[in-house]
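Aim 2 progress update. The chain analyzed this quarter is reproduced below.
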Amino acid sequence: MRIQFFSNGLGLALCSCLLLAGCDSGEKRYRLQGNVTFKGKPVPEGYIVFEPDSSKGNTGGPGRAKILDGKYDTSADDNVGVLGGPHLIRIQGFDKKITGESAQEVALPKSLFTDYNVSEELPKQDGTKDFEIK
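Predicted structure tokens:
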């Protein structure tokens, strides 16, 4: 059985700890929002992480956002804004249906796709960025 890193909360807890360490640096964070679709349909739920690409000279703590009904917003709830510049972006998407029907199985949402990774230049200002996963 494959257990998703973010689906059990462990990944989010780890990201939160890392973000707390990186957010005290006083770096300007920007709001990024948009849509995430898979095969033309909104991703029901998931996570998106924006990691500054240090290989291109962009350093600092990562940004992140929850995906809900195909939308994300780094300024919502406990999400964290982005720094702008070159980033490595990872997206995980899940179906809202829970798998694991017996007492011996762990109930987890079904992953819709293998982690989607892309490198993007993000604006150093508030903005909108959509992601289409095919």
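The radius of gyration is 15 Å. The chain has one domain: 10-133. These observations will guide the mutagenesis experiments scheduled for the next reporting period.
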